[in-house]
Structures are given as C-alpha cells and as structure tokens.
Write a structure and sequence with these properties.
single chain, 2 domains, six-stranded antiparallel beta sheet, about 30% strand
C-alpha cells in the first residue's frame, strides 16, 4: 500500500476522517447525516469545533460552531492540559496495601516480558489474519472494520497459545524491579488491575471517567456546562436544517480562554 489510511470506520461505533487541515468524525449517537469537525485551517488564528450536516447538494451545508480557541493559546496550554487530563485518567494505586493484603497471592504480568517472548510473533500473525476477515481497505486509504462475532473474538484472543503465553509470563509480585518504569496487569484472585509504574509511584486507569468529561477536564465547570448546553441545543437545530442560512443565527462558538484558577467539580 503506497498511501496511508486517512479514513477509519467501525461498525456500530462511528468513523473518523483525517484531512490536511481538519479532522471529521461521526458517531452512532448522532443523526447519520451529522458529524463533528475539528478545523485547524492555516488561514485562521483559531482552532474550532463544529457540527455539520450533509445535504443532497453538498453545498451551503448547515454548520454550527460549538467552540473555538486561539492556536497560540492552545500551544501554550499543551502541558497543563496534558497534566490535568492525565491527573484525571491515572489514579494512585496503593501497592503497599495490595502487597500487605494479598501477599504471595498477588501476581504480576509485565507487558515488557510479553514483548520479549518469541511466541508472540505467531500469535500476532494469527490475530492479524483474523482481523483481515472483519476488515477491508476501500479506495486504497479507507479502512472499514465490521463488528466481530463472538466466534471471531475467540479465535483472535481465546486460544491455547495466547493462554499459555500469559500464564507462562505470570509471576508472583517481585521484591524489586530491574527498570524504573513498567506497565502490565496485577492479579488478585478474580480481580485484574491494569497498572503504570513510574519509579516508586503506581497508577491505575480511572475506568469510571466519562470520555467527554475527560476531554473537557481542563475547562472550568461553568464553561463546561455552557459547552454541553450549546452542543445539545445545536444538535436539535442542525438535524432538520437544510442550508447554512438555517443555522447561521446559532453559528456563534464559545471562545475558550485561559483562566488563572479554573474551578472544576471533578473529585
């Protein structure tokens, strides 16, 4: 393949399309002819997030901008935004408590060990071959993935080779580690906990975090509520609009600005 994939669709989930100066994506929760777009046009000082409805003429499309932010400001805020999001996504893991509670019943599965196991090559080939059965490349750059059946999932992951690979790399929790960082799973009885280790600090993934809340975690509570209300209102307007003129009165994005002490309601 001499061209990169620029369009990905997953059955019953949605699609995403990467272009030079924008990213568009649809979701099964939206009307089928409505999609999101993140635009970073070089002719504009802003990045904007808007909704668009496809119409038969494909011209003068209904559009409502939800939010925008100055490119220079976003670049300035990259590190604090990343720190905020990671702070919500990664929760401290009390490894001393787990070691005290489970003792020799605490098991450790390292992704690094799996990566070094030569048997993973055969398993990767098997998974790749099974994946090809539920996917197809259209027009050279568009990848379509169908919903896998239970049979396909079992043939991809629930194999004897996969089970043996995992079991053979499952060890009791070590007294010390050879590297300063690591990722993998901790097993305590019937509980499996994915972890990230950085020096002496252990973290687990916050799987209760709503993806939308995570995406908006760096925005203050008041503005976040405005964005949710604006989005909900915009969906109701755009789903029946026929031209841009129908949505023009609502095409006024909320501008995101830097707050010195943003107030959030996340715990």
């Amino acid at each position: 393949m001499d061209q990169s994939i620029d369009y990905l669709s997953v059955e019953d989930l949605g699609w995403v399309h990467f272009k030079t100066q924008l990213i568009s994506f649809g979701h099964h929760g939206l009307p089928p002819d409505v999609h999101f777009t993140i635009s970073y046009d070089s002719r504009s000082e802003d990045i904007n997030f808007h909704l668009t409805r496809n119409v038969p003429t494909n011209e003068n499309k209904p559009k409502i901008a939800i939010a925008c932010i100055n490119k220079e400001l976003l670049n300035k805020l990259q590190i604090p935004i990343a720190e905020t999001i990671l702070g919500k996504l990664l929760l401290p893991l009390d490894i001393k408590f787990l070691r005290s509670k489970y003792g020799r019943r605490l098991y450790y599965l390292s992704f690094a060990d799996l990566e070094q196991d030569s048997r993973k090559v055969d398993i990767e080939v098997k998974i790749t071959n099974e994946f090809k059965k539920i996917s197809a490349v259209k027009r050279r750059t568009r990848l379509k993935i169908n919903s896998p059946t239970e049979t396909v999932l079992k043939s991809m992951f629930l194999t004897a080779k996969m089970r043996n690979l995992l079991l053979d790399n499952l060890n009791r929790f070590p007294k010390q580690f050879s590297s300063t960082t690591g990722t993998g799973f901790l097993l305590t009885g019937k509980t499996i906990v994915p972890f990230i280790r950085i020096d002496q600090n252990w973290y687990r993934i916050n799987d209760r975090m709503n993806p939308i809340d995570l995406f908006l975690a760096w925005i203050d509570t008041s503005t976040r509520k405005e964005l949710v209300a604006k989005f909900t209102e915009s969906i109701s307007f755009i789903k029946t609009a026929e031209t841009y003129k129908d949505t023009e009165p609502y095409d006024t994005p909320i501008r995101l600005v830097e707050l010195l002490h943003p107030q959030t309601d996340f715990v």
